[in-house]
Amino acid sequence: MVEISTSILSIQEGKEAESFFQLEVAKTDYFHIDVMDGKFVEKNTYKKMLNHASYIKRISNLPLDVHLMVEDVKTAIDDFLALEPNIITFHLEACQSKEEVLEMIRYIKENNSKVGISVKPNTAIEEVYEFLPYIHMCLVMTVEPGKGGQSLLPDTLTKIATLKKHVEEQNLELDIQADGGINLKTAPDVKNAGANVLVAGTAIVMAKDFKVIIDELKE
After folding, report:
1. DSSP bridge pairs for 68
2. Domains, the chain, ranges and CATH?
3. Which sequence positions are flagged as catalytic?
4. What is the mean pLDDT of the chain?
5. Quick one: which H or E segment has residue 79?
6. What integer pLDDT is reported at residue 166 of this predicted model?
7. 8, 17, 22, 40 from 44: Cα distances, Å
């Protein structure tokens, strides 16, 4: 069975507390925190996500799955480490060198968080291979990061399948997370391709009953 990380990006303003509680009752596995700086991606959710994640930390024991879509990776890591997240994922494309990628991996691990690396749709999956032995999760973006409610890009399914094959061939212990355009229609293809952690936002938070959707996505 796959795990579900619910993106809180689309949660209705004024209904945050109620929605977070309902998501916990509905047994989402993680709260997915989409952190955007307005530079690496167009949208800026930085302060909002810091506030939401701080609030969730106070009311829930569910793990925080922090996805950094930012240029200044180190500063963002520092800001969110204070919330003791389960995992911090940063973008391969935000780093200028192999050394910087390895330094970010080391820094996150030293601060007692798991590490994920994310790749955009246009980045070849092979570019992340050399870092896979040192991380806990690879996040394949199935849409262009920065906007909610987009349709899944079919080519990204091949990327997930290629990654899955490599992980198995190298005998790596690694979660494969997919994020973007995931709903009841696209989830089976994403799971068949090899992802075992699905990020869904709009599909869950726009539903009348969170539990029904989460259960169906997990099946």
Report:
1. 35, 90
2. 3-218 (3.20.20.70)
3. 34, 179
4. 96
5. helix 73-81
6. 98
7. 14, 21, 26, 9
